[in-house]
């Protein structure tokens, strides 16, 4: 409610939003002079003055996207996210290439806790090629991952976060984010129950070191986690995934089984158990677990993948192809599904279809499922804003 | 407990020096808040009514009036300040925070403004910004408000622990104890820092409270120089929690100063429980350097640097081990890395002073000496 009051203030923000172009003939020269003064004030770090001048500038010319950009970036640097958010909205509406503006708009919305808006604009940013300098890409990718966790898209979140683990080193915020996603807690760091902090921290440290392939330190935290929180939901599921990364499949299977004793309806644990049992050449054990996962979550692509692979391994070739086709319908961009389907078609003698799926697998294999392709990120140097990490 | 501190602090915050005061009659209590349909009042009238409402403890009226005043004059610093403090008292921390962000852009040199902003951010769980802004408050001074300084020290110390800066946190907590802070307020934060658990006191699970309390009491008792009491407390902690990470390190760190051979034993036990413990390696290496067992020190210090390449003390101890072993050039390089990572460490500057002097680099040695003198000046020391 108070935030709404603030929006009604005749402040800078309102002046900006109610601005009209000056119709006078001298407008052109006065605008150019103003823009120059604003840039000079900003360069000299006279930010209050720059704010006033940019505000006047966009009032004179509401289509001045550089003005909106500068105004938004100053407000952002001052942590005035509510005001910056409105300004970046104007920027993305007026700029010919609004790409980085979507990231800043999303970051502001994250800070003002408009999480749905933020997620939407991170997606717009990704669609425009994830432009921005390295700092922006790091900060935006990190916050996007937090929101993916909140949306229960844990694997996608971990995909983004794991990529940062090697680069960012020992950052407590990264461990916290990875801990939440690893334990499948659909929260942001600002809203999870405080008494879960220790379990999240231990899981996060184990996840960060695992992502950095420092398995001995990952195991140390994993051991602490298992000792401290043996009955906590998703702890054994997570320990199973850690062991799976190290290809310690029999131990991973034991952890998934423990998880299912604690949470018998835990479908991700069923799916991963089925997949590791296939790695353990225990397809007979994988089959009923995967089947149960599919029954419980018929829209879960990875469950269909696991069931399809288990059917394939037990020589139920037609049923396997059918399951994998269902998985493909649900996740057409998954290279794993396409590869398994190619294998099924091949074994059924359906060589043309197998060839088609193999080609799809190859083209998808290197495609990032969450981030935009790297080659589309080339215009980073054009970003003038200095985002706060 | 934290809210209690904050409210205590707020009582001291009601007169910011920095806010330009509009014309007012503080004694008058006749003003009433504006209502719909009432004739529009001037800014001066609204400001006067807001201050009167606040002084008469009519907080809700004051809030509405300050909001009205800020609509008329968005840059009204006194209004921003008082409205922020009132909203903070009402536990409307996000609203308070947003106003304070505007306030500090107008008054960037006000310690209390940054302090209240950091505390609001703490309450909204924006811990990273809270720590930055509370540190900013510490650099800007307290305008004579000792209680405010104590509150900020508390918040900074617990946040440093959450961000895994345990040594810095301990330094602040010991300083708080020496300045007379209530012991029951700092036992738990000290225990968390001492055990290297990056939790806030509000995040401690109930089954952890006993261990953390024992660790905190033991660590604080070291500062009281009561050896028998320290032995008793740490002995009980180790007996109750023999396999808990951090316990043997803490006990060992104490023993290193009184019975080094037992300290070494405890540190070795810690490394069995926590194989990647950097602090245990460094304390062992320091002890071996003291005993001139440079080869043993070197191995441990090298492992510490490998485990924590961005940790200045690891490079410092490695530099000391190398220098002791006679590898002057490598030793200097490590000490310089440590200095670059933590320029405020007097010990590193002392190490460098000696190393440069031995190498005949008098200009470099002189610069280190100047740094040491600068660091030992009273204005470099922080007190709550």
Question: What would you note in describing this structure?
Answer:
The complex is a heterodimer of chains A (389) and B (384). Chain A is mostly helical and 389 residues long. Among the domains of chain A are: 125 residues, Serine Threonine Protein Phosphatase 5, Tetratricopeptide repeat; 109 residues, Tetratricopeptide repeat domain (Serine Threonine Protein Phosphatase 5, Tetratricopeptide repeat). Chain A has 21 helices and no strands. The two termini of chain A are 29 Å apart. With 384 residues, chain B is mainly alpha-helical. Among the domains of chain B are: 112 residues, no CATH class; 85 residues, Alpha Horseshoe (Serine Threonine Protein Phosphatase 5, Tetratricopeptide repeat), CATH 1.25.40.10. Chain B has 20 helices and no strands. The chains are: A mainly alpha (389), B mainly alpha (384). Chains A and B meet through helix 1, helix 12 and helix 13 of A and helix 3 and helix 5 of B.
What's the gist of this structure?
The complex is a heterodimer of chains A (389) and B (384). By secondary structure, chain A is mostly helical.
Relative helix content of chain A: over 70%
Mean pLDDT of chain B: 88
Helix content of chain B: over 70%
Separation of termini of chain A? Answer: 29 Å
CATH superfamily of the domain at 1-19 and 27-132 in chain A: Tetratricopeptide repeat domain
Strand content of chain B: under 5%
The low-confidence runs of chain A, each spanning 5 or more residues with pLDDT under 50, are: 1-23, 368-389
Name the chain pair with the biggest interface and residue counts per chain: A-B, 31 and 37 residues
Shape of chain A: elongated
Mean pLDDT of chain A: 87
The appropriate CATH architecture of the domain at 1-19 and 27-132 in chain A is Alpha Horseshoe
What characterizes the major β-sheet of chain B? none
Mind summarizing the main beta sheet of chain A? none
Report the radius of gyration of chain B as a whole number of Å.
26 Å
Give me the Rg of chain A, rounded: 25 Å
The total of beta strands of chain A comes to 0
Query: What are the secondary-structure elements of chain A, in order, as H or E?
Result: HHHHHHHHHHHHHHHHHHHHH
CATH class of the domain at 1-19 and 27-132 in chain A reads Mainly Alpha
Unreliable stretches of chain B? 1-34
